[in-house]
Amino acid sequence: MLEKTLAILLAAILVSANPLVDRAAPMAVVYEACTVNNTVALTFDDGPYLYMTYISDLLTQNNAKGTFFVNGNNYNCIYNDDVVASLRYTFLAGHQIASHTWSHPHLKSLNVTRITREFELVDSALESILGIHTDFLRPPYGEYNALVREIAYKESKKLIIWDFDSGDSVGEAYRQSETDYDAKIAQNPKTLLALNHETEEDTAHYLVAYVINALQTAGYKLVTVAECLGLEPYASNTGTFGTRDDTWACPRR
Ligand SMILES: *[C@@H]1O[C@H](CO)[C@@H](O)[C@H](O)[C@H]1NC(C)=O
Ligand SMILES: *[C@@H]1O[C@H](CO)[C@@H](O)[C@H](O)[C@H]1NC(C)=O
Ligand SMILES: [Zn+2]
Fold first, then answer.
1. CA distances from 27 to 113, 137, 144, 150, 158 (A)
2. Mean pLDDT in the chain?
3. Can you give the pTM of this predicted structure?
4. Of 25, 58, 85, 215, which has the fewest CB atoms closer than 10 Å, so is most exposed?
């Protein structure tokens, strides 16, 4: 009994003397799964590229919503005229637009300044193009560390990972991705937070229609990431699109 009391006392002293415990900076919440039963969030990373409006239409035609985690300057420049148009079209169709960083780096290898810049450049683009402020961010490759989470917290971000990977960005044939989805659905999960890529032609032209049908047939509701978590899609939404000026340019790394 005495030993136990001493052990607890010692532990208490050690904890209070440990600056790492005392001064731990607050960190952004990390979500790896949806929380609202019976929902599926289909997410599409790495755009804006060529297939955003096509996927947006497919979802809309099937009474489904999706989420696009977009970069500022990856496959395309977010400020290009055609990209601005497809972002606005997809946003107005009710799909969620969120951040995937400016240039798709490995965030764990960057310092405070670079990480902050990766977040803020996309935020500023989405503010001027769509009039929204997003608080949802998917770190590239799903990679983050304590520093990334601390900065994300300061920037009012939630980090969104996934619990199912379609495999479409690592060279998997779309037929294999379909089989993977079928196997996952057969496990009867309560929810699904699924990773796909807007930049893959086969995803846009074959996989999306297939999985919408498979998931809806199994009784799932296809919603945005915000809705599958019971959260608001945007920290703010002015309802006004900005006007192009000479800051709408991409050599900004
Ligand atoms: C979700 O489903 C689980 C198990 O089926 C149940 O225990 C839980 O109460 C449900 N949650 C809600 C919010 O309906
Ligand atoms: C952060 O990294 C960049 C690029 O590697 C470097 O130029 C800059 O000096 C670094 N900043 C700090 C504060 O260390
Ligand atoms: Zn990515």
1. 17, 14, 11, 4, 9
2. 92
3. 0.90
4. 25
CATH class of 28-237: alpha beta
Mean pLDDT of 33-42: 98
The full set of domain ranges for the chain reads 28-237
d(CA 202, CA 190): 27
pLDDT tens per residue, range 76-119:
999 999 999 999 999 999 999 999 999 999 999 999 999 999 99
Return the ∠ at Cα 155 (arms to 108 and 223), rounded to 5°. Answer: 90
Average pLDDT of the segment spanning 237-243? 97
Indicate which ligand has the atom closest to the C-alpha of 118.
2
Q: Return the pLDDT at 8.
A: 53
Pairwise CA distance, residues 106 & 23, whole Å: 26
Pocket lining for ligand 2, CB < 6 angstroms: 111, 113-114
**Interval between CA 112 and ligand 2 midpoint (Å):** 8
